[in-house]
Amino acid sequence: MEVAELHGILWRLIEADGLEIRHNARSTQPDPLESGFFHPDLYGFGPTIQLWRNRADTVDDHAQEVVTLAHEYGHALSHRRGERPRLVMPKPAPDLTEVEKQMVEAEEAQAWDYGRAVLKDLDPGYDFALFVARKADADREYTRRLGRT
Ligand SMILES: [Zn+2]
Known about the structure:
With 149 residues, the chain is mainly alpha-helical. It has a domain at 3-17 and 60-145. It has helices at residues 3-16, 62-80, 98-122, 129-145; strands at residues 20-25, 36-39, 48-53. A 3-stranded mixed sheet has the order 1-3-2, covered by helices on one side. The longest helix is centred in the last third of the chain and has 25 residues, at 98-122. The protein is globular. The site of zinc ion has 4 residues, from helix 2 and helix 3.
């Protein structure tokens, strides 16, 4: 399947599942290292996935955004299944307790696992090379932010 087609199918699946996807201009991005985030109830408006793009209304790169959407949707699934330990997860930082650090790492791993399963289900021929690279980058960044190194 073409990645742009997969992007459309994933997008519609997420919206049909009751999440609002908002795509914002990069200039409003609170954290330059995050390409998206999931919030179960942002400002009381219900579950949402926020995306950042160079221009709000134009997909920068369908392949990259598919990975972002799948990962953030993985957080939504973890939340829905009652597995997300806190409504709002603590920001990764060196001064979190060990329990909190493990909680953050487990939730990230869970979101990647669920995202992977969704993509595999939607497109059995999906090439996971970019997904794996993005996960490795994110894992390194979390390790750094949690002061693990
Ligand atoms: Zn995440």
